[in-house]
Amino acid sequence: MKISILGSGSNGNSIFIEENGSKILIDAGFSCKKIEEKLNSIGEELENIDALLITHEHADHILGAGIISRKYDIPVHITKESYIAGQNKLGKIDENNLRFINGDFIINGDIKAIPFDVMHDAERTIGFRLESRNNKKIAISTDIGYISNIVREAFSGVDVMVIESNYDYNMLMNCAYPFNIKARIKSNNGHLSNNSAVKFIKDIHSNRLQKVFLAHISKDSNTYDIAREVLERELFNSNIDLDFEVALQDFSSTICEF
Fold first, then answer.
1. Which residue of 99, 143, 161, 176 is 20 to 30 Å from 79, comparing CA positions?
2. CATH topology for the 2-252 domain
3. Which pLDDT band, with edges at 50, 70 and 90, does 170 fall under?
4. Residue 21, phi then psi, degrees to nearest 5
């Protein structure tokens, strides 16, 4: 399998996955033109994408989804709850390309998508566990307020994980956000802090885990360096050797193949 984080943060999220020639995007929170550019930067073309999988209806996850589906005739896999809540942002999607998520589904016989519910302040938010026929596994959750047992099960035994590391607690408490926004972010239906993300990574770590991407770094209550340093320090203190990368907002990660 191959994975590249095309961009992650409050201004847009999208992840490229490939397995055996089947290519998908998880979320399309940038404009169609921007996603075209981001895919081109890693040597890929939007016209070759086989499916678009949506985690929830917030604009930073679906901004370009409707346009991409219409322009390139790409199926959109989305929960009915997220579709209804985000219909105005999506616009009209051809009924042949509108695929409501209702349990596990398979793309081109190559990628099994296993959706799982997560706590976040959207109408409904899901993450995805993706499995290949040769038993490669990825788990993805970029907006999540709380690590439930469902989430733990979805991330268990994976080769690659993409997990939110949204805010630094001290920065959040001292930033310019009004109190109600701060309370929402750090609630169980908000976002995951650096410390919570690192604790989860340490708890779920196994010899199988090859790489971690820290995603959805806040531009106002976190920094790439802080998120990186927190994980680096805790892995060192726990004597865990693990490759990790901080996903950037404006630049695509190099393709990770495993």
1. 161
2. Metallo-beta-lactamase; Chain A (3.60.15)
3. very high
4. 90, -15
CA-closest candidate to residue 61, choices 45, 41, 85, 40: 85
Give the contacts of 230 (CB within 8 A, at least 6 positions apart): 165, 168, 194, 195, 198
Q: How far is CA 197 from the centre of its chain?
A: 14
pLDDT tens digits for range 18-64: 999 999 999 999 999 999 999 999 999 999 999 999 999 999 999 99
Q: What is the spatial distance between Cα 44 and Cα 102, in angstroms, rounded to a whole number?
A: 29
Single pTM value for the model: 0.97
Q: Which residues pair with 243 in a beta bridge?
A: 211
Give the angle 205-102-13 at the CA atoms, nearest 5°.
55
Domain residue ranges of the chain, discontinuous segments joined by +: 2-252
Three-state secondary structure call for residue 172: helix
Per-residue buried b or exposed e for 185-206, using 16+ beta carbons within 10 Å of the residue's own CB: bbeeebbbbbebbbebbeebee
- Residue whose entry in the numeric block shows the structure tokens 């309370």: 183
Which residues does 67 contact at the CB level (< 8 Å), separation at least 6? 31, 32, 91
